[in-house]
Amino acid sequence: MHKIVYEEYLKQFFEDENSNRAIEWDGSTESDDRAADTSTLPSYSNAIISNMTAIGIGVNGTSLHEDSNVGMEIRDNAGGQVWNSIFTEISKSILDIEKTSSSKGTASTIGSGSFGSQALLENGVLAFKGNIFYNGGKGNTALGTAEDDQVASDIIFATANGNSFSSDPKLAVIGTVGGTGILATSAQPQASSPAKTGAATFSGLQTSFLTQTTYRGAFDGFTDWAESWTKVDSSDYLATLSSDLDSDGLTLAQEITTNQNTDPSKSDTDGDGISDLTDPNPDNSGLLPPRGSTDVVLGGISTTGFISGNGGRLSAGFAISGGEMTVLTTGKGAKEYLSTGILQDTLNDPKMEIKGLTGGGWVSQHSDFNWKTGSYFSQLNNTGFFAQYEDDDTGIYEALAANNYLAEITSTDGDSGGTLVEVYETYGYWNSTYTGSKLEGISTNGFVQTGTEPGQRMTAGVALRNFGTNVNATKRLIVMAKWSTYVPSNDNDPNNDFDILDDPKIEVTDANKNILAQNDNWRTLPASVKTAVTTTGLMSGFRDDKDAAVIVNLPGSGVYFINVYSADSDSGGALVEVYDLDALEAKYGWNLGN
């Protein structure tokens, strides 16, 4: 009898105290159940499982079932393969692999005298690859995970198999679920979870039908394939990515992205009197978002702000490393709508200069007044970036050497209004020559006024691009909002030429305006995050009780927005900066953690 069972992307919850196993499979149970004498099929079952997440009653839970609470029971001559799965919070043991008599099983080929499932494990017919086993009732040891079976633990936790017994999968939400009254863990991984990477690579014909992932377990932390059609979702048994069970204004997806992994029964998880929505450290974990991939790069920045005809300017800074890069920069009247539905007053006629940093300071290298009559018309027209904009808007399309630059927008005719400045690397968009260069950092100097409307706040849009093969790759960024003396004040007071924004506040959102991270004063950051910020030196000389910073780990393909507001109704010059921490950490040899 040869049984094959294929299972992919399973999630199994057996938190109820009457449950006994997450999964069990059997082979031949008696001698007369085995294959016919004329059969050429092997006499064992062959279950093949990948990306399963199994969550038990809790390591300290009390099972009412006679067989207690076990993760996997593999018995009676059962073979098979378990790949890239998570088994956690199980009150008895995580693995129970049965050793049978000769009448019930295949014999070991290594002379151990074993029969049945344990013999199949010894023979390589039963295999475990890339799995995370954690918090079983017999302890986070190799021997305890395998129910004190030394032979099994030695094979399963051999280095080549990539299984772990002491690594916390860091699943996202702890809370009371489904009316059980039992604390249970979400199947979604936290941003810092080891399950988000480290999947073993499938091998062999029998796994050719499986979908290779980079993550382990049933979910990647970004998508929720169980939502809207499963019992788990319809009964609110566990939190889905779009849920907000603690009513704190953050969805589970946002809490995962920002490491705000809260208890869904509370809106103030750590009880410090600050709601999770505004608490910079809502669970007192102090977790630093994990490293991302150097295959993910900054694709560009676009910033909207206000320019006064009285010497105002909006300046996008960018740092190129790794060689020459062809860059598109634009300056346009910003077409943003106020909350009243009326289009904001836009800057009538912007002028652009690209300035490079030299030993003597910033030196003008390229300029443009009107894109349609300027030197770059052909390249700019081909991009399509001016299709909805005016002829007197401005743009530059140039190859620039590795250096630091400013793309500076000013008013040509003394007009004031909302302005958009953009900087993009062009490879993959319009230029097919990839030089290996990248944008290490991008920033904008601008003027922030009181309020949250367009023209009052400053908003930077940041594009991430993934040039690697891992579609789930992420990017770790540091995002900062600081006072700036570079922007002249937008008033006529000759004694107030460089008015700074007294207290900037920063907010990072996704393309749907969901808040992913925010900060007012960077000294309030969790200890590990503040240490990482200090290590970079990027906030050196800036005020820890006024200026703002966050570190985020974001999906590697997408557009994100950074809003800079005045936290105290002041107005003034502000600087928003975004740096690729993965690139800088590799370049300077920093060890920021995680």
Give an overview of the whole structure.
With 594 residues, the chain is mainly beta. It contains eight helices and 27 strands. The protein has a 16-stranded antiparallel sheet that branches. Strands 1, 3, 5, 6, 8 and 9 form a six-stranded parallel sheet that branches. Strands 2-4-7 form a three-stranded parallel sheet, with no helix packed on it. A hairpin with a 6-residue loop joins strand 10 (174-176) and strand 11 (183-185). The radius of gyration is 29 Å and the shape is elongated. Mean pLDDT is 78; it is low at 1-7, 13-17, 30-41, 174-184 and 489-497.
Strand-pairing-aware structural class: mainly beta
How much beta, percentage-wise?
A: 25-35%
* Biggest sheet character: 16 strands, antiparallel
Overall 3D shape? elongated
Essential attributes:
594 residues; mainly beta; Jelly Rolls; 3 domains; six-stranded parallel β-sheet; 27 strands; 9% helix; disordered N terminus
List the helices and strands and how they pair.
Blueprint: E1 4-13, E2 21-26, E3 45-55, E4 70-75, E5 78-83, E6 86-90, E7 95-97, H1 117-122, E8 126-129, E9 132-136, H2 142-145, H3 150-156, E10 174-176, E11 183-185, H4 231-234, H5 252-257, E12 296-307, E13 313-321, E14 325-333, E15 350-358, E16 361-368, H6 377-383, E17 394-400, E18 404-411, E19 417-425, E20 438-448, E21 458-466, E22 474-483, E23 504-509, E24 515-519, H7 527-536, E25 548-555, E26 558-566, E27 572-580, H8 581-588
Parallel strand pairs: 1-3, 2-4, 3-5, 3-6, 4-7, 5-8, 6-9
Antiparallel strand pairs: 10-11, 12-19, 12-20, 12-21, 13-18, 13-20, 14-17, 14-19, 15-16, 15-18, 20-27, 21-26, 22-25, 22-27, 23-24, 23-26
